[in-house]
Amino acid sequence: MGGKSISMGQPLVSIIMNCYNGSRFLREAIDSVYAQTYQNWEIIFWDNTSTDSSAQIAQSYDKRLKYFLSETFTTLGEARELAVRNAEGEYFAFLDCDDYWHCEKLGQQIPLFQDPDVGLVYSNYWIKNLKRKKISSKNMLPTGFILNNLLNNYSVGFLTVVVRREVVENSPSFFDTRYDIIHDFDLIIRISVKWKFSCIQTPLAYYRYHSNNETVRKIDQYIKELEIWIKENQSNSKIGTQKSFYRQQDVLMYLKGVELVKKRKRIQALLCFYNLSICVEKFKLFLIIFLPKNIFHLFKLQ
Fold first, then answer.
1. Which of 108, 130, 142, 275 is the most exposed, fewest CB within 10 Å of its CB?
2. CA-to-CA distance for 257 and 275, rounded, in angstroms?
3. Domain identity same for 220 and 207
């Protein structure tokens, strides 16, 4: 399944949009693609058996949006894998139905693939809720071969990535569909083992943080999957040997501790605290354990 391009030399970008009852913000998300200054793209719209008006909204656009209805409801990882299999582009990008892009996103990112060693381009982005927005990273985002950087501080927003098809052309699958929540994290780490990353440092996308986000609703599943991922990659000669691999264990301990506090199991949360190395998560967990409940609002947009 090779990539297509047009005579003007602009490669085709396949934008994967997975939707399950996402009508609330859907039109704004799709419109942000149609507003792109870079115009050689297709939307692969995968409807995961929605029961709201998502299908009607998606099918109101022209043929550049290719609508697919899943036969059955699947996990997000499986749905994205099925959508990718229908994509024809030389590059893949991903946009969820509650997020949206800056109009220059693709126009600024695609030229960075002129370096044949670059397998993925990402950017900074805004995180917003109903009350405010903040920039995802105030620091310079890493570029080049950044596996160790990502293990130390995972900074790639999946809504910002553009991936070269060649990166996964010979792989049996794009995503590891065993993972429901962390399939995107796993993909990014695997790509970073062999390929350079490039980055636009200014924000080019908007991520909506709300109670229906997958990682918010399924935090217990996130913790379980991260624990499995850590165990499986400890013996990986490319990933487990990185000096920052231990940081994922710190992230896991922190998340476990926070959830235990929410369940009023502070003694068990203290065990997570003591198992943490000296890091910012240890300080944050200490505050969460010992300060009043309303301290949680300080950490909601992390």
1. 130
2. 10
3. no
**Non-local CB neighbours of 24 within 8 Å, separated by 6+ positions:** 98
| pLDDT of residue 66 exceeding 50 | yes
Question: Domain limits at 136?
Answer: 13-211
- Determine the Cα–Cα distance for residues 16 and 65; give it in Å rounded to an integer: 10
CB burial of residue 138 (10 Å; 0-12, 13-18, 19+)? exposed
Helix (H) / strand (E) element for 205: namely strand 196-208
Which residue, 102, 124, 88, 95, is CA-closest to 11? Answer: 88
Within-domain flag for 6: no
Give the bridge partners for 126, in sequence order: 135, 206
For residue range 100-135, list pLDDT tens digits in order: 999 999 999 999 999 999 999 999 999 998 788 999
Which has the closest alpha carbon to 95: 165, 15, 32, 34? 15
Cβ atoms of residues 13 and 110 within 8 Å: yes
Neighbours of 173 (CB within 10 A): 13
DSSP 110: G
Strands 118-128 and 196-208: parallel
Residue of 227, 233, 268 whose CA lies nearest to 250: 227
d(CA 198, CA 161): 10
Query: Do residues 112 and 98 share a domain?
Result: yes
Q: Identify the residue whose tokens are 């990659």.
A: 233
3-state secondary structure 42-72: EEEEEECCCCCCHHHHHCCCCCCEEEEECCC
Determine the Cα–Cα distance for residues 51 and 210; give it in Å rounded to an integer: 20
Q: Are residues 185 and 78 in the same domain?
A: yes
Please, what is the Cα angle at 136 between 93 and 298, to 5 degrees?
Answer: 135
